[in-house]
Amino acid sequence: MEDKVMKLLSFIIGIFFFMFYIVIIDTVITSHEGSFLEFPYILLSIYFFISIFTFPLVSIEASEKTHNKHFLIKNYSLIAAYLMSPIWVGSKLLKNRED
Fold this sequence. Notes:
Elements: H1 2-30, H2 39-65, H3 77-98
Helix pairs in contact: 1-2, 2-3
Keywords: Membrane, Transmembrane, Transmembrane helix
Transmembrane segments: 7-29, 41-60, 72-89
């Protein structure tokens, strides 16, 4: 039950990060007369959209591995996990495929 709650909470946080990204990038782009759906920004948008769905898996695993460890970037670990989650899940899938 606790894993489901944590995954749901991580999913909601992932949606929040994605919406925050859209607001920030839209503010930056509209000052240059463009859209976040144009070429360089669409790749980031797709990457962060994928992060919404991979973040719940990574956040639980990362919290188990980093329990009782102190990092310099402890305050930013949630954001770092969100940014790295597609890469983390992709590498896990490749490792499982090779085994």
